[in-house]
Design a protein that fits this description.
Blueprint lengths: L2 H8 L3 H12 L2 H17 L9 H56 L3 H12 L4 H8 L3 H28 L2
Helix pairs in contact: 2-3, 2-4, 3-4, 5-7, 6-7
């Protein structure tokens, strides 16, 4: 098929195809893109096609292209919704984590001074047991025992505080 034959057979349907695409997509730019894609597909397959009714074939082709575009749009909207939901959950989790950290800081301040010091050295400054023992003058075994007791006490107080807030009692 020559370009002249192609123009004579398919281009007269351009306005009807555009109107259909615009009705389906409700966007002038997307409708124009759909019609252009239709003609590109027709041109690329021009020597393979055996079409009985050019207009009906073009209408079906543009309709299918529009439906593909709508599916893609819907998929993108769903992905955007999912992304927004994930972002909201992340923000909520960050707020909860920050609130929990503030609560934990208050609980740490309620510990005996030595336990406060060891918790801060180990979990805030991330010192090793050997470094803590060296800084405090305690044995490593004593550091481990004292930290274990401090953590247990913090865990119990934190759980009690959270259960109290959750139950509202």
């Amino acid at each position: 098929m020559t370009s002249e034959d192609f123009k004579q057979q398919f281009l007269p349907h351009a306005e009807k195809l555009y109107a259909l695409a615009l009705r389906l997509l409700t966007s002038k730019d997307e409708a124009a893109d759909a019609v252009q894609d239709t003609f590109l597909k027709l041109w690329s397959k021009r020597n393979e096609l055996e079409i009985q009714n050019n207009e009906a074939f073009c209408v079906t082709l543009v309709k299918n292209i529009c439906l593909d575009m709508l599916r893609k749009r819907r998929k993108n909207e769903l992905l955007s919704d999912i992304e927004q939901s994930v972002n909201e959950k992340t923000v909520n989790k960050q707020i909860e984590t920050h609130y929990d950290w503030l609560q934990m800081q208050k609980l740490i301040k309620q510990l005996p001074l030595q336990q406060q010091q060891l918790i801060m050295l180990r979990h805030v400054k991330e010192c090793t047991m050997a470094e803590i023992a060296q800084q405090t003058g305690l044995s490593e075994a004593n550091v481990r025992t004292t930290l274990s007791r401090a953590r247990k006490l913090l865990r119990e107080k934190f759980e009690k505080l959270n259960n109290y807030e959750y139950n509202g009692t």
